[in-house]
User: Fold these one by one.
Assistant:
Number 1:
Amino acid sequence: MGMGVLLALGPLAWVWLRNTGAAAGRRTQALTLLTLFLTFDLVLFGAFTRLTDSGLGCPDWPGCYGKASPLGASAEIAAAQSAMPSGPVTHGKAWVEMVHRYLATGVGVLILTLAIASWLQRRRGGSTAGISPWWPTLTLVWVCLQGAFGALTVTMKLFPAIVTLHLLGGLGLLALLCAQAVRQQQAGQGGAVEALAPGLRSGLWLTAALVLLQVTLGGWVSTNYAVLACSDFPMCQRSWWPAMNFAQGFEIWRPLGHTGAGAPIDFAALTAIHYVHRLAAYAVLAALGLLAWQLLRAGVQRAQARWLAALAAWQLVTGLSNIVLGWPLLAAVAHTGGAAALVVVLTWALAASRTAPHRITASRSPA
């Protein structure tokens, strides 16, 4: 926790110095944006931690073999590494895992600061940067729950459902911070919320729901290590419909690599996990492309539309790279980053818009 506080002092000092003499609401807005940026980085580093098999680099929590850093646990790590050189505990993996925990604690301190600052501003009758203090408070509760899932990820030995929920919790944290940043910017610049046609607004919500579903499926693929179950494209195992075990693949509450009854999971179950994610990707890419085209055609939210189109292409390229290149680390982290960016852009679009009121045309009665 001390490391987390020390890491948070840097961003806090930077925001304070950059906004010396500015209103309290302006400092809160700057801190929200910086926390959003650092949380995005944290999600990427979490993906790096998972993809380098460093999630159990320190097999206890919150420390490393009861120590504050891998330096103090060097003897225990060396013993574990000597017993199993290719196992989950090595000096490198321990450092990756602990750095992830330090960064997560630092982000938690920043969110705690945002919540306290918002309530102090409300109490003093000053500006709260256009949002209720309950929003930062909800974000603080959310990050505490996220920390609890991080602990369970370790203590439950990478239980797939817990790891997937931990990923979704990180994306939810991004959405909460992004919504606050958008509203604060609107309040600070006096900008109006953009009105969208009811059908377009509904399409935005529907696309966001599809992306959330696809991210959940992608998290399930990653946490079950099912990426390489299909190593060809567009077919899988040289078949348009390979052998799949949906019952095992989508049994939610089970340990990694095993069924709920304790038997080893079938390869056909991993195939089912992978192929469902791939099939859903076609629908999500089509929805993103259609939404971007409709926004541009209507002349609204052009920046968000361009980002959605670019990120859809990014996800297609990085997803295919994972398959045909054998799951390289760079492509896998980039794919997670694209999913996180989609969540941020869709939240930006939703927070910056509203449904336009229906126009009621009065009929003229004959004279």
Note: The longest strand covers residues 194-196.
Number 2:
Amino acid sequence: MKIGLVYDPIFLRHVPGAFHPERPERLTAIRERLEREDLSGLVEYLSPRRARREEILWNHSEAHYERVASTAGKASVQLDPDTATSEDSFEAALHAVGAQFEGLDEIFRENYRVVFCLVRPPGHHAEYDQAMGFCLFNNVALAAHYALRVLKFSRILIVDWDLHHGNGTQHAFYRRREVLYFSLHQFPYYPGTGRMEEVGREEGTGFTVNVPLPAGQGDVEYLAVFKEILRPIALQYRPELILVSAGFDPHRNDPLGGMRLSAEGFGAMAEVIQEIAEETAEGRILLTLEGGYDLTGLAESVAEVIKVLSGQKRVEIRGEPSASFREYLRETRQFFSRYWSL
């Protein structure tokens, strides 16, 4: 099965700083890896479109849009301590959002079952009225809005496996049940949100599922969370579409993280997501690049995900979680059993 890849050179022209970890070389490394013989026949490239102002306003304030737009053509603007722009960052951000829409259209037309958006800047920290955490506009949240508003889906699952909690995505749908947001992330850590007790409000109560993890977890622990918490909840929710905030900073070599995932671990998580999608969503998955700052680890992890989702590989993760982690899983299932059958 071919995987659609949405990409454009505009994403290389977002340059937040000479020594910034979210650098253009991230995409260059992924592209070079995808061109090797074991992957080149598995992917087909697609072009993004430019998102329109009114589409950005589905998830962001006018003031925020204008603030980001005002950076166009300027050599460097610092939007928060971690988030800076260059001359073409605004255009890159609009195309990163438009990549979501193009990818979803391709899935909706049944041209692809799986599409991966290779975009920069990332998005899941971007709030309604604030750029933060390297993110300008919230790509995945806007993908969910597009799927609800334009494509008329009614149940969407967002899986966020980035090292950091996706505060902006969580807040976008915190009071809604049309989107189930699931995140596992290093905690305590930036941005400070993502406690288990953050479960949504009003009609969205129970439709935010946070699994905060201490540093040092690896393939076995992540896969256990996917199999014992994500899968049973997702199969009860029965999403019609799965969106993945695919951050690769939980990789064991990532300079910003403290987790121990291997490239194969990301493949194993993708396999679980694909099983859910096959069961409930006719296989429909849209992945969007978030973090991941070790270039080799990032490229190899993306390669594993592509191999798994294209049907070229199955991953076997050996080992069992420790007794203490099994107890954590038990307590987590018990907590969420007030909303889901676990």
Note: The chain has a mean pLDDT of 98.
